[in-house]
Design goal:
This protein is α+β, with helices and mostly antiparallel strands. It is 14% helix and 29% strand. The chain contains two helices and six strands. Strands 1-6-5-2-3-4 form a six-stranded antiparallel β-sheet. Strand 3 and strand 4 form a beta hairpin. It is globular. It starts with 5 loop residues before the first helix and ends in a 7-residue tail after the last strand.
């Protein structure tokens, strides 16, 4: 690959349109070993979409947010990262997010096997 000289680099940067990150958070799936994840572990691959659902009646954490793959409960957003999501989901703003499996390592401890990334959906029109 050919290297750019300084003038070419500066010119290319001037023409580049900055695109801010849509990243909101990423985290391991808490409680994975206790729910349905092991039943479908081979289906859980990078990029698979997951859903976040507020669980305000959870007896251990009123800000709990469940992570589902299709109709299977995988676990929760960790307690130290769930407050904003819980509030937005509770008030019906779940459509702001797109959540996907970001990391898979089936050799790790069950609480460290899967990470989820949450991004803000890009609802800009392409026109």
């Amino acid at each position: 690959m050919e290297k750019m000289n300084t003038e070419e680099l500066v010119a290319s940067l001037k023409n580049h349109k900055f695109e801010p990150s849509r990243h909101v958070a990423d985290f391991h799936v808490a409680g994975f070993a206790y729910y349905d994840g092991l039943d479908i572990i081979d289906e859980l691959t990078l990029g698979k979409p997951v859903r976040l659902i507020a669980e305000p009646d959870n007896p251990y954490d009123p800000e709990a947010v469940v992570i589902f793959y299709q109709d299977k409960k995988l676990g929760y957003i960790p307690k130290d990262k769930n407050s904003l999501f819980s509030t937005l989901l509770y008030f019906g703003h779940g459509d702001l997010f797109e959540s996907k499996i970001q990391f898979v390592n089936k050799e790790s401890h069950p609480e460290r096997q899967f990470r989820v990334v949450v991004k803000i959906k890009d609802n800009r029109s392409n026109s």
